Amino acid sequence: MITLDPRSATPPYEQLRVQIAAQVESGELAAGSKLPTVRRLADDLGIAPNTVARAYRELESDGFVETRGRNGTLVRAQGSAALQQVQEAARAYADRAAKLGVSADVALGYVARALGS
């Protein structure tokens, strides 16, 4: 959840950028997750679309997200090359499990067993 403080000395685009970056770093926003469109997020937060667009541009410049034209803005994998590959594989597995109608608990159980946990 993103909240902006209109009384803060920090500009809204920076508040937005910092919160999204923190969600990426914490894993709350997983690699491959699609961010809301600029217009939708601006409407949700009650701010100008240019404010969201600036935050997205800076997040892209910092390597947190990538914009794929009509496919939207997606969270990039973070960390070492190995960690990036694991994040991308996890996103692909999660997408496939959801497409097959498998619940998150069942899918996680398979992963835990595969990892020997």
Q: In terms of topology, how is this protein built?
A:
Layout: H1 12-26, H2 38-45, H3 49-61, E1 65-67, E2 73-75, H4 81-99, H5 104-114
Antiparallel strand pairs: 1-2
Helix pairs in contact: 1-3, 2-3
If you had to describe this structure to a student in words, what would you say it looks like?
Keywords: DNA-binding, Transcription, Transcription regulation. The two termini are 31 Å apart. Helix 1 packs across helix 3 and helix 2 packs across helix 3. With 117 residues, the chain is mainly alpha-helical. The model has no long low-confidence stretch (mean pLDDT 93). Strands 1-2 form a two-stranded antiparallel sheet. It folds into 2 domains: 64 residues, Orthogonal Bundle (Arc Repressor Mutant, subunit A); 34 residues. The longest helix is centred in the C-terminal third of the chain and has 19 residues. The protein contains 5 helices and 2 strands.
Summarize this structure briefly:
Residues 10-78 form the HTH gntR-type domain. This protein is mainly alpha-helical and 117 residues long. The protein has helices spanning 12-26, 38-45, 49-61, 81-99, 104-114; strands at residues 65-67, 73-75.
